[in-house]
């Protein structure tokens, strides 16, 4: 796929071993979020436990929040190091590690921007993730103007993707107007297509809608293809990225796009071991019968699919957004708890 089409792929994790596997097979970037960091910490606890205790010992006044962000940042820097050769080979336009701002700050422009500017300074090949909430879009516009390579996350709808792309355009134009460089800036708009499908399934079950089961596998793909066509037509400089894979169609139906597909290690291994020959299918439309059923039966699909389906103030209240924000915030608190268990272990359980 990466040899024969303009489609790139990223590793959906900052775990070093998984990232090295991906880079060896052509991956040009990686993503991270609180759920991913927690998963990496659990997988690599033997490695991280002594480092966490060292951080705490070096400054006994460090709070668990401060220690947690030290760990998150160090994981990101380690992943960015693996990607440095890719970054150099692509002239600064690839090989970036995406690091997410605190998900609990989704309504606060200043806090997200402050953290995003800090992340940008951690390594030359950082990409900073902001949520596609109303506040997040304002923050990422300002960050873009400041020279930060952004990646919009918590994004599920064509309307959100367009709003992010327009904000990026304003940020790039303002930067260029001051004579500041934009040639190595590679802003990304992530559409979490698997979570779109998840939300359609929740609605179908909640509202007792008897849908063709095949239709529930195509909602996220339809949203991505609609957004991709609009991005091409309008010439947006941000690049779309498809995330949150649930099945192989999330891979095969998007091949050929000048876009990015981010995959977990498990999906990469499965796809690499398959006999599927990826062929360009980004221009193949979704079956009109399945698309029509989603449009007729699920109003929230229409809100996701239509370019004017949501107003900016509705972004963070859209069902998939709420579910994902709650999940990311919960994972962040679980991560804090995991750090606490190392720094301040529970005396009621056996010491480790």
Mean pLDDT rating? 95
The major β-sheet equals: 8 strands, parallel
**Subunit organisation of the chains:** single chain
CATH class assignment: Alpha Beta
Low-confidence stretches: none
N- to C-terminal distance: 45 Å
Radius of gyration based on Cα positions: 20 Å
Discrete helix count:
14
Strand fraction: 5-15%
Structural class by SSE content = alpha/beta
General form: globular
CATH topology annotation:
TIM Barrel
Task: Give the strand order, joined by hyphens, for the main sheet.
Answer: 1-8-7-6-5-4-3-2
Please give the number of β-strands: 8
**Number of self-contained structural domains:** 1
Which bin fits the share of residues in helices? 40-55%
> Which CATH-level-2 architecture?
Alpha-Beta Barrel
Order of helices and strands: EHEHHHEHEHEHEHHEHEHHHH
Could you give me the name of the CATH homologous superfamily? Aldolase class I
Describe this protein's structure.
- With 352 residues, the protein is α/β, with parallel strands linked by helices.
- The protein has a single domain (8-343), classed as TIM Barrel.
- The protein is 53% helix and 9% strand.
- Strands 1-8-7-6-5-4-3-2 form an 8-stranded parallel beta sheet.
- It is globular.
- The protein starts with 7 loop residues before the first strand and ends in a 9-residue tail after the last helix.
- The model has no long low-confidence stretch (mean pLDDT 95).
């Amino acid at each position: 796929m990466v040899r024969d089409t303009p489609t790139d792929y990223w590793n959906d994790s900052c775990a070093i071993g998984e990232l090295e596997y991906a880079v060896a097979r052509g991956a040009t970037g990686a993503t991270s979020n609180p759920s991913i960091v927690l998963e990496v910490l659990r997988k690599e606890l033997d490695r991280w436990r002594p480092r966490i205790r060292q951080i705490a010992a070096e400054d006994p006044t460090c709070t668990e929040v401060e220690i947690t962000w030290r760990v998150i940042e160090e994981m990101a820097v380690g992943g960015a190091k693996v990607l440095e050769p890719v970054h150099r080979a692509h002239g600064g336009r690839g090989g970036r590690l995406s690091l997410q701002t605190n998900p609990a700050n989704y309504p606060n422009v200043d806090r997200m921007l402050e953290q995003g500017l800090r992340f940008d300074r951690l390594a030359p090949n950082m990409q900073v993730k902001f949520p596609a909430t109303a506040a997040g879009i304002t923050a990422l516009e300002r960050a873009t103007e400041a020279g930060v390579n952004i990646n919009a996350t918590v994004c599920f709808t064509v309307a959100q993707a367009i709003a992010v792309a327009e904000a990026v355009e304003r940020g790039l134009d303002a930067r260029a107007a001051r004579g500041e460089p934009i040639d190595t800036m590679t802003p990304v708009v992530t559409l979490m297509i698997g979570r779109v499908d998840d939300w359609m399934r929740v609605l179908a079950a909640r509202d007792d809608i008897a849908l063709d089961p095949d239709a529930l596998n195509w909602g996220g793909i339809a949203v991505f293809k609609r957004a991709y066509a609009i991005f091409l037509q309008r010439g947006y400089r941000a690049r779309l990225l498809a995330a949150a894979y649930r099945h192989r169609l999330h891979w095969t139906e998007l091949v050929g796009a000048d876009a990015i597909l981010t995959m977990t290690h498990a999906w990469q291994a499965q796809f690499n071991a398959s006999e599927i020959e990826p062929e360009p299918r980004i221009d193949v439309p979704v079956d009109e019968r399945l698309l029509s059923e989603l449009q007729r039966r699920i109003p929230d699909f229409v809100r996701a699919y239509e370019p004017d389906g949501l107003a900016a103030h509705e972004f963070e209240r859209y069902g998939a957004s709420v579910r994902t924000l709650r999940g990311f915030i919960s994972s962040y608190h679980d991560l804090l708890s995991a750090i606490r268990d190392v720094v301040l272990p529970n005396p009621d359980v056996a010491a480790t």
